[in-house]
Queue: 3 jobs
Job 1
Amino acid sequence: PAHATTPSPFSIPSELPPLPHIPGTEPDRSVLDSFRTAIAKIVAEALPPLTVEQVYTGVDYGKKGVDFTVAIPRFRLPGKVDELAAKVLNKFQPDEWIESVVHDKAFLHFTVRTSTLVRLVLNQVHALTHDTPSKEPEYGTNTSGAGKRLVIEYSSPNIAKSFHVGHLRSTIIGAFLANLYKACGWEVISMNYLGDWGTQFGLIAVGFEKYGSHEELEKDAIKHLYNIYVKINADAEQDPEVKAEAARWFKRMEEGDEAALSNWRVWRALSVRKYEEEYARLNVKFDVYTGESEVTKESQDVALKRLEEMGLIDDHEGAKLVNLEKYKLAKAVVRKRDGTSIYLTRDIGGAMDRYQKYNFDKMIYVVSSQQDLHMAQFLKVLQLLELPWANRLEHVNYGLVLGMSTRKGTAVFLDQIIKEAASVMHDQMRKNEDKYNAVENPEETAQEIGITGIKIQDMAAKRINNYTFNWERMLSFEGDTGPYLQYAHVRVCSITRKNPELLPLPAPSEIKTELLTEPSTRDIVFLLGSYPDVVKTALRTHEPSGVVTFAFRLSHAISSAWESVIVKGEQDVEKARARMWMYLCARDVLGAAMRLLSVKPLERM
Ligand code: ARG
């Protein structure tokens, strides 16, 4: 998705009443900023010494059919609310920005001028979708992050262990956040930090000697390594010597013994290749594949040494622990007795390496809430080390997924999850034979809709909530599901195919937007106008659910207008064209929201 780095191809027409500029607003990318500024100006001028900036922060979306509301008490002005409200009402003059204001208890409710709203919003959506210098759709983007760099780590599965739904959630939420920061002007480096190091690789090495096959490895490295891991783990349970041998092997790996490392290198490369294919199907791409193996020994040693100097390390039978009891974060092992490193220490050293390499303004870790303690310990240690960039790190967590299994049993691999989604969706689609036969690539379409179903279910609620995986519900075309969103998008796309005689549409300036007078079109337009705010809120909360909710609201609004605000069959050609343009703008914004969520909007199904 787009990067807001070039000037907007849209600007507020100069014939409209002039407005002051409020820092942080971008009317050329978000027209509602102008309407809010106009309201702030009205209130500030009526109620000195309030400034336009002060009032601006108090202009909220209204409830139930009200465009914007200002709560008077929040400004803590002397005098009665009723008198203050009367001052605003007395001074109010309707103009091309604001049509009316009413006073209701502590509130002032403002209605924006419909003709201006419709014209500006649709022109802005159109220009920022189709006329950008980048040639990429940019509606909804802003430049708040210009010049800043984000490193975001997500997915991070463990080679030779299962890719479980927790990793899938990290992948989905992480991909969304990466898109989101880009949409807000940040330079984004997305990073996959593989679990490719640790004692278990000693175990697999021992297992590979016993059970490994190069042929199987070539075929599907992820599955083969997993099978070896399961078998050798069982052996280790029986035989302590297996464990001891594994520990010795890993120690050799840590010491850089090439003979102990060569197989491991192959496993890793083949696993990454396989992962890349699967991520591509999810519409996810990483700029960097790194892993626990790549954390430098130097950084880990520096960190440990400093912790020791600071008196934060306890010795326990040769193992080293950092004592975080003071912060209610328990004690955590930072180096094992045999001198080998562990997960926590690698995270500490890894952060230092990354700062050196990327000089980031912010680094996000998208990791399950099951690792809250680990992440808190890790971040606390960085703070104790007094690294000046320690507060640039943030853990974005998420709850559990319950009950994820395929029809054949529990899923342990990503490709099983994708296959199952495609096949459940395919069965679903076949239930309607006529429609099914009209689909061009039923297999591909089923996979895409299936993946959309998984992603939307995953992002529909607050991140921290646990949710139960439910194939039937998430893959239904009814209710607020991924398939429904795809359907809504396909349906608006059909409008050009169904009305070829109206095409090509005239240039935006020639389209008679004043003919769009129905309340249901105004609802759609207002929602379109609010999309840049939805993006900004998501950046603040790191929650995809607001974007999902927006996509559903927009789909519902389109659906409500669809039967009454018709294009096909409308006798007045100018009106039919204006309506078509409005629906196409709605399509553009729905598509933008879906892409932000890493979903590929379909044009046919
Ligand atoms: N590989 C780890 C796991 O599967 C997740 C890594 C999370 N990231 C981190 N920097 N600790 O549990």
Job 2
Amino acid sequence: RDDLRGREPYGAPQLDVPVRLNTNENPYPPSPELVKALGDAVAEVASSLNRYPDRDAVALRADLADFLNRDTPGADLTAERVWAANGSNEVIQQILQAFGGPGRTALGFEPSYSMHPIIAHVTGTRWINAQRDEDFGLDPGKAVAAIEEHRPDVVFLTSPNNPTGTALPLEAIEAVLAAAPGMVVVDEAYGEFRREDTLSALELLPEHPRLIVTRTMSKAFAMAGTRLGYLAADPAVIEALLLVRLPYHLSSVTQAVARTALAYADELLGSVDTLRAERDLLVGWLRSQGLRVADSDANFVLFGTFPDRRRVWQAMLDRGVLIREVGPPQWLRVTVGTSAEMAAFRSALTTALKETQ
Ligand code: PLP
């Protein structure tokens, strides 16, 4: 295929180094009690692995709806309005298979999550890059103008945004919904990290049948290895997704593991406060070093600016600390880890800054 020539596969480095702060994972592994519960759940499905899983993952979707109703009571969700797939990357792919595709257009606001345009490309959807502001927020007037100019079939918003950490106020999302002629996806992969005084786009679902809110168990839930992403939307959206998904796309093991993790949601999400506090310390420290730091509502921080960020990234890696070269060219992103990992990060960055000045 000519259109694939020259493209690179997704390539966040997976290196065996002591401190891995490059893919916004949660640093806390499951507790021994949860490990035991997960093992029991897997053992239970093991005896019927000769059979296909529940194709529609109804019990899991009902549990996810319950969880979202606790997060946002006004969302009033049921299994019919929730959908799950192998990570939110697959959720996004299914959305673009259903609502994008050849002859259709998707629009996003850069800098944002790199997989949105990549998945658009692999589904044959034309991608339009609109821009965020200097401070990485979204000016509703400019966003509406971009939408009116391009009339996209799908608009992507990410809140809190990756890689900048910026959360969007509901008014900005409502302005986009009012202007967009097609679907509006709000990617809330980091939704659970948002400040307590800000609201999830789930609030807007009852009024907006063209809104899709995506979430994942990979971040706050600390279950990245499970590969479980999900969305909430109007039942008509779910009916469209049923037409594009592969049969039995969620294994019975995945479904059992995800349901068990949801039963431990309070314990798992207990890390959110710890990580927020660690993030705020990190932001303060980076600023004290004279660096620019983007305000973050997520479990990572974008900081800079460096004339040659690759040198700083490499100097950090030489000290066993892996961070990410992503976003605007002079910035780097670090995931919030444990306090020991953050101490290793500070020490490595102090040396790296001296070396690369
Ligand atoms: N959306 C955003 C904004 C992300 O940052 C990520 C992962 O980093 C994803 C979606 C995909 O997450 P997953 O496929 O693990 O659910």
Job 3
Amino acid sequence: MRSLIDILELSLEEIDSLIETACDIKKNPAKYADKCRGKKLATLFFEPSTRTRLSFEAAMYELGGNVLGFSEANSSSASKGESMADTARVVSGYADIMAIRHPKEGAPMVASKSAYVPIINAGDGGHSHPTQTLADLCTIKNEKGRLSDLTIGFCGDLKFGRTVHSLLAALSRYTGIKVVLISPKELCIPSYVKHETIIKSGMEYTETESLEEVLPTLDVLYMTRVQKERFSYVEDYERLKDSYILTAEKLAASKSDLIVMHPLPRVNEISVAIDKDPRAKYFDQTLYGKYMRMALILFLLDEKQKNTEEKESPYRLVHGKKCTNPACICSTEQELPQIFKCVNEEEQIYRCIWCDSRAK
Ligand code: ASP
């Protein structure tokens, strides 16, 4: 049975078809209003969310289905020590499909191994966020007319910004994409994303600390919030939180057809004066997100009926190594098997299958 844990599990054709469905839903909502009649979506949110949870819920209601779930870890049995695997197995009996957000990296993947229904990763720690990527791709396709031949700047917290990691993975399969990574050194892109996504795919990239310098060259600017909740020391967050603030004066130097995106919530990175600028697309992005989640729910429920086999890992899997990432789900769920994938045979690079961190 298919789930959506990582954006790369969807082929380019499947992504195109999801975008097409999302656009059709937007145009003809009545055609879809009964598609999920009698079906239930469970939203298991162990971490705060506004857009992702509510857009999933709105998506299921607009498809004629129902929703159940919780929006904080404290109101679930996780607070009594229940494992992710057990929770997912139990909720499988109550819902037809599940969206899970969790602070631990790899938690939705763990759930997908024990659940009997499709699991959608709605954000796992600083790791990935594939449904935000679907919203982002739909926004770029609709607002720029294409998903290739674009210069895209990613600005802010590229270290902990899971939406950046997933979107870069998705973009690495399109042609003519140049990425400009704009961040302070402390918040630069993790090595696994740089090596296994950007460099491996041959995508052109540059790194800089200056937004002003590169702004005039960009077709898309993807701003991000500094992820306060992922810092070990509050002083580090305080020092870095205002690294970039996009103001109307700075925006004046950009192309007239630039689009400014942001997964939201915005804290201080984009001045509110920009909201009225036609280049600002971050609120449209939230709506595209709802339509893409509707398309995804329909797709996964359809795949479930077809009983599609889960694809085998393309990597060689090994046991006997230990994951040292404190944010990995295996750091709190001791029973989980420690499995590593060999992502580079020549250099013998092994990464944890749950969180992607490198074996020491
Ligand atoms: N809403 C996005 C996420 O859940 C971005 C953010 O929180 O900054 O990752």
